[in-house]
Amino acid sequence: xxxxxxxxxxxxxxxxxxxxxxxxxxxxxxxxxxxxxxxxxxxxxxxxxxxxxxxxxxxxxxxxxxxxxxxxxxxxxxxxxxxxxxxxxxxxxxxxxxxxxxxxxxxxxxxxxxxxxxxxxxxxxxxxxxxxxxxxxxxxxxxxxxxxxxxxxxxxxxxxxxxxxxxxxxxxxxxxxxxxxxxxxxxxxxxxxxxxxxxxxxxxxxxxxxxxxxxxxxxxxxxxxxxxxxxxxxxxxxxxxxxxxxxxxxxxxxxxxxxxxxxxxxxxxxxxxxxxxxxxxxxxxxxxxxxxxxxxxxxxxxxxxxxxxxxxxxxxxxxxxxxxxxxxxxxxxxxxxxxxxxxxxxxxxxxxxxxxxxxxxxxxxxxxxxxxxxxxxx
Amino acid sequence: xxxxxxxxxxxxxxxxxxxxxxxxxxxxxxxxxxxxxxxxxxxxxxxxxxxxxxxxxxxxxxxxxxxxxxxxxxxxxxxxxxxxxxxxxxxxxxxxxxxxxxxxxxxxxxxxxxxxxxxxxxxxxxxxxxxxxxxxxxxxxxxxxxxxxxxxxxxxxxxxxxxxxxxxxxxxxxxxxxxxxxxxxxxxxxxxxxxxxxxxxxxxxxxxxxxxxxxxxxxxxxxxxxxxxxxxxxxxxxxxxxxxxxxxxxxxxxxxxxxxxxxxxxxxxxxxxxxxxxxxxxxxxxxxxxxxxxxxxxxxxxxxxxxxxxxxxxxxxxxxxxxxxxxxxxxxxxxxxxxxxxxxxxxxxxxxxxxxxxxxxxxxxxxxxxxxxxxxxxxxxxxxxxxxxxxxxxxxxxxxxxxxxxxxxxxxxxxxxxxxxxxxxxxxxxxxxxxxxxxxxxxxxxxxxxxxxxxxxxxxxxxxxxxxxxxxxxxxxxxxxxxxxxxxxxxxxxxxxxxxxxxxxxxxxxxxxxxxxxxxxxxxxxxxxxxxxxxxxxxxxxxxxxxxxxxxxxxxxxxxxxxxxxxxxxxxxxxxxxxxxxxxxxxxxxxxxxxxxxxxxxxxxxxxxxxxxxxxxxxxxxxxxxxxxxxxxxxxxxxxxxxxxxxxxxxxxxxxxxxxxxxxxxxxxxxxxxxxxxxxxxxxxxxxxxxxxxxxxxxxxxxxxxxxxxxxxxxxxxxxxxxxxxxxxxxxxxxxxxxxxxxxxxxxxxxxxxxxxxxxxxxxxxxxxxxxxxxxxxxxxxxxxxxxxxxxxxxxxxxxxxxxxxxxxxxxxxxxxxxxxxxxxxxxxxxxxxxxxxxxxxxxxxxxxxxxxxxxxxxxxxxxxxxxxxxxxxxxx
Lengths: 378, 877
Known about the structure:
The complex is a heterodimer of chains A (378) and B (877).
Chain A: E1 2-6, H1 20-44, E2 49-51, H2 63-74, E3 80-82, H3 99-104, E4 109-111, E5 118-121, E6 124-128, H4 140-146, E7 156-162, H5 180-188, E8 194-198, E9 204-205, E10 212-214, E11 230-237, E12 240-247, E13 252-260, H6 263-275, E14 282-292, H7 294-310, E15 313-316, E16 322-325, H8 329-335, H9 339-353, H10 358-372
Helix pairs in contact in A: 1-2, 6-7, 9-10
Chain B: E1 2-11, E2 14-20, E3 25-30, H1 37-49, H2 57-61, E4 72-79, E5 82-89, E6 95-102, E7 106-109, H3 110-124, H4 127-133, H5 150-160, H6 167-183, H7 192-311, H8 315-385, H9 390-413, E8 416-420, E9 425-429, E10 432-436, E11 441-445, E12 449-454, E13 458-463, H10 469-489, H11 494-522, H12 527-547, H13 558-627, H14 630-660, H15 663-701, H16 706-768, E14 772-776, E15 782-787, E16 790-793, H17 799-818, E17 825-828, H18 836-850, E18 854-859, E19 872-875
Parallel strand pairs in B: 3-18, 3-19, 17-18
Antiparallel strand pairs in B: 1-2, 1-4, 4-5, 5-6, 6-7, 8-11, 9-10, 9-12, 12-13, 14-15, 15-16
């Protein structure tokens, strides 16, 4: 039996560094990821899709987000099972109980509302561990698991859960952590064949079994994700389980650090930018460190200005930003100032070098002077 | 730039005139105004500024009024590398000719000539500075506007040692200023771009806050909803158990109520028996009271009768006493009357006896009156016998003394005889014998004659003779007077007169005493009155004795009578007191009798009333007995007591059963079970309501898409924030750049103002001496002048001093720019305000300045410039 395991669609998520147009494209790309999953299912012969939580970024997403998601889900040719996760728990305001969802949900869409086993087809059943609140006080997956009998022969059981596992979790006191031991015991004694988890946005298997997986987000959502943008093609059979990640992402999040100390570095950086494919679906986070002349800085600014127009977003990594632009002799030659103007510029250079609060403003002022004096055109 | 030669033709009132100027130094052009010295300055302007075919006001003004000709100007000028002759004619036969001789020949005419001349000028001359340095007639006191004059700035920069500034720097400054102007007001306040981005951030933040608030409320509602669901689950699970418990206690309570019903019935029956017993007991007691009443009434009747009988005998003595009392009173009253009469008699007796005493006194008084009257009569008879009076006595005394005097004088004047006896001797002297013892002696005066004889022995007669005649006559006269007086008084001599007079006085005193006695006895009355009173008293006394009763006898005297009266009065008082007592006793006896009678009557009535009451009581008892005989009443009481005991026992038994059921516990627990169930039920309903409300509210909000709205708002805030930061950074940079540039520029200006000030000071020293200085402002104008240690602001200086300073500044500028070609300084009739003493010094100043530059002075007052020693003078005619 083959199916697709995915999770953390986070539909309705917005990224503040995206401008309005980019945000729209980003949202569209993530809705279309659902369609791509449907296509993959058809292409690979998967008989259903299981989503390990957080299909929606919140219970309070916009109605249009729900409608678009349901449209995309309707395009999926196989049944889709949605598990309420920590972002979209099955509480009083659950998106899955919203009138929009109830009225518009296509027939192939099912919500795993409790941990009653659901027989998907002959020989395979799903057991969900849905979140009903944002702060559960127990290991929901463990709870769902504990009431299970061993699978009857010829039947395979997929446990669908959401949340962090206790091994390697930074917050060991969280009572909702999923006990990996328990899962592995259940896998060992045959109560469960595969555990499809969500929450972690990167694709990753946990534990020793090779049968406990985080599918990761089908489109990346942040710079710190190691391996986002995949879905898992899972085969469960009497002779075991095979898991095959498939890349479905169209967007990329790239964080990049640049040392700039001269015109060559700027040129290299320009080339690096140029090499990027799919620039309009690439989000950059850049940090510059170094010291350059005003002319070089002006060139870098020009490149960045251009990049902003081309890339989905160019974000400067404020915390790691340390680029000092000061006029050098060639700058001065270029603008050839004399008299009071020269004296003013010298004063600003002194200020820009001094370790005072004004230094940054002085550097800005120097840049401005350079520009007003026509240095960039010279 | 130098003007070498200027020629005007048909220019205002001037037909034609040509002036040559010294290239370096001062040229003074003299001439009255109408001759057109000002026209020279004007002509130079027109030559360069007016196009050849211009009909502008400036041009038309210079046309001669009386002739139809075109005004013409021609100048020979060198500037920079150029030297040229430039000619123009306006209005009529327009003409423009430019003949350049250096650096290479050029010949141009018309508009081309004009344009080329302008070009050369602009290329080589700071026209603005040139114009600034010109002083027109009447504008002398204004300072030249020197700031931003290119040639000057450059020259000053050179002088100050700064690198030259050009358009590049100025345009940078302009650009920086306009960049600054985008963000900041002139006073450094924020302008729209900064305010706008701040407002945008505020707006975005408000938006985020609002949405976050709503989001929090939404989250809180969701949480509450979960909580409510949990509570509902718990409560619903508890409800059936609570209901069961409640029903159990309801059953127990029903049982209790049944038992309590029985108790209630037994209690009612018991109460009824108690009441019944009370009723029959009351009947029994009423019968006893009735019997008792009859007995009591009988006793009262008996008592009344006894009281009447007891009181009746008292009446008789009282009646007797009442009859006797008036008689006693009468007896006493008679006694009283008798005593009163006696007292009257005694009082009259007393009066009578007192009058008798009066009568005695009167009788005695009357006797003394008689006596006095007799004495008076006797004395008066005696007095009648005496003739002498006091006056007669006195006259006798006088006459006696006169006689005695006369005799003495006779004796003294008459002869004296002294006799001494040497042996006892009897002598007769004038017939009187005198016996003398041995040794006796006597003297004798002889009035007439003295006869001295010693009987037997001798007789001696001595006569006085003639010598005593007159004395004797006087003595005889006196003796005669005395004799007459004694005769009249009936006396023999003075002593007798005196004695007789003494006796008369005694008689008179005796008479007066008798009269006094009489008057005293009469006491003012007449004798007749006394006599009449005496007679009246005598009559009354006698008549009382005759009329008075014999018994009792008249007391002996008034004292006795008084005693008798006192006794009689005592008897009267005694009788009166007794009468009062008796009368009171009589009244009391009467009252006692009446009271006794009254009491008897009352007792009689009481007796009757008691009899009636007894009758009624007997009747009542009889009626009651007819209704129920006494033994029946007795029996009813006994029956009721028995019944009550039975009922009480039944009630006690029922109560025992009730108590066994613990009614308080059952009620309390049953009540509690009811309440507990009700409370839980109510809570369930309440929670259901809340849940429904929350669900409704959450459903209502489900369409809001708060999550994305909030995210979008946060993004907007971040963008606005970023934008604000970036705009502010740009604004700060612009401000810093502008501030720094402005500051540096001012500094530079101050730096190159120094050489100008230096130049002005140098020139001024010529005028004022070494203690002269000026301070220049940033626009290069003179701000103040310091002279002899006193600094005065420019505007406070006198007009003459201002004029001089203006001129000094212009000359200094001209000197500064001279090295670079310079511009001519044209002064049109200046120094009008300068006093003659300074004019000489100004001449020196102009000469000094003239060493570096071309100075053209136009004047109609040649005296003003006489002291410019180096000047070349040109006179206009």
